[in-house]
Amino acid sequence: MCPEEGLLQAYLDGELDAEMTGRVAGHLAACAACRQRLQALEELAGSVTAALQAYEQETEAAGRPLRAPGPGSMASRYQPLTKRRGIGNMIRQHKWFSGVAAAVLALVIFLSWAPGRSLAAQFLNVFRMEKIQVVKITPEDMAQLDKLFNGQGGEVDIRNFGRVEVQKPDKAEVKVKQVKPDQVAALSGLQLDLPATLVGRERAAIYIEQAPTITFTPDVEKLNSYLQKHGGVLLPANLAGKSFTLSIPPLVIADYGQPGKGFTLYAARDLTIDAPQGVDLVALRQALLNLPFLPESLRRQLAAINDWQRTLPILETRDMPAREITVNGNQGVYFGDGATNSSNVILAWRQDNSWRAISGLPLEEALRVATEVK
Fold first, then answer.
1. 340-350 tens-digit pLDDT
2. Is there a single domain that holds both residue 185 and residue 334?
3. For the chain, how many structural domains are there in total?
4. How far apart are the first and last CA of the chain?
5. Angstrom distance (rounded) from CA 30 to CA 75
6. Which of 210, 211, 194 is nearest to 255 (CA)?
7. Mean local confidence (pLDDT), 106-120
8. pLDDT digits over 60-69, tens only?
9. What SS3 state is found at 268?
10. Is 308 in the same domain as 292?
11. Is residue 297 domain-resident?
12. Could you tell me whether strands 311-316 and 131-136 are parallel, antiparallel, or unpaired per DSSP bridges?
């Protein structure tokens, strides 16, 4: 029997124990259809915000080895694909986009629409935005950042710009585990209705994925030295030694339908960020938006977001095109290959003070599912 979508996803993320990894790998070695499903899962975008990039890059940028059986076993004949899904494709092509680089760019994007408010309060509201605006990163932008962050010409050594620390969930906790419907609220903090059947497909399994806490501490002295050399706006001096802490909430993953013919529904609460007190936010935003290595087109787009109290920027790349859309009366976004009848679509939207997303369905069908998920 073919494994469910959630089990394949846990296999990709390296979160299964050795025995289960061996069983899944053995099945994949003999099942071409499931190998195709695995590859399709890897190619799907796994996130819709730059905030999650810091976690993805710090823990996955180096291509974290997936747990696999020892050499010589039958299961080891098939090696899990290492190609990361969605934003991970960009990470592989652009090695600089990891750890500190992701954290710096995430701060730029966050602060592009939030001058003047308490930074902690701003981040607590980051996923309560009522509007979404797509911000494009072109291949030319990526090439420019590649050149800088790869150290060509000695322009930038991003590793000197700060420190990113990842505190994983308690070792006693299983990062991804299958749960019953009545356990979802207690483990995720969401009052989520997951119908037994959606668009003719029965609910196959529900999983909860625990996430880490990420702390970014900028090296203000080194950053300001670089900024001064290149004519940039300096970071506030009182930011030295202070950190930003990002807490990512548990992710609910619900599989519907038979393997290869179903879809997956995701839900999560707002992430929260604790920020240092007493920092001049206007000066910090100005400095970040004027980082010399930011491509001019990206800088202009971020600076042009005027309705900062209600607008959430969504990054779009050539390999992950994004479009704005209305879902249940709320603004949302979908990522896909440009064909509305394709199942390679991720639809994400805000509902009831949380985020929802659907992957594995054509857009029109995903929109119908969204009306039934409360």
1. 455 667 888 88
2. yes
3. 2
4. 31
5. 10
6. 194
7. 38
8. 333 333 333 3
9. strand
10. yes
11. yes
12. parallel
Residue 99 shares a structural domain with residue 39? no
Only one residue has tokens 């590793």, namely 159
- Reported as a pLDDT band with limits 50, 70 and 90, residue 158 is low
Query: Are 373 and 265 in contact, with CB atoms under 8 Å apart?
Result: yes
CA pair distance 369, 43, nearest whole angstrom = 22
Does 214 reside within a domain? yes
DSSP tally for the chain: helices H, then strands E: 13, 15
C-alpha to C-alpha distance for 280 and 115, rounded to whole angstroms: 9
Please indicate, yes or no, if residue 70 is contained in any of the structural domains: no
Same domain as 93, residue 15:
no
Q: Which distant-in-sequence residues (6+ apart) come within 8 Å of 364 by Cβ?
A: 340, 341
Q: Is the pLDDT of residue 314 over 70?
A: yes
Partnered with residue 253 across adjacent β-strands are: 207, 266
30 and 173 housed in the same domain: no
Domain membership of residue 325 (yes or no) is yes
β pairing state of 213-218 and 201-209: unpaired
Determine the structural domain holding residue 27 and report its residue range. Answer: 1-43
- pLDDT at position 312: 64
Distance CA 2, CA 238 (A): 56
Q: What is the mean pLDDT of the segment spanning 55-80?
A: 34
In this structure, are residues 361 and 372 in contact, taking their beta carbons and an 8 Å threshold?
Answer: no
- Residues contacting 36, CB < 8 A, separation 6+: none
User: Is 9 a residue whose pLDDT tops 80?
Assistant: no
Confidence of residue 369 (pLDDT cuts 50, 70, 90): very high
The SS3 call for residue 75 is helix
Strands (E), the chain: 131-136, 162-167, 176-179, 197-198, 201-209, 213-218, 244-247, 251-256, 263-269, 272-274, 311-316, 322-327, 330-335, 346-351, 354-359
How far is the C-alpha of 54 from the C-alpha of 214, rounded, in Å? 8
Beta-carbon count within 10 A of 125 CB: 16
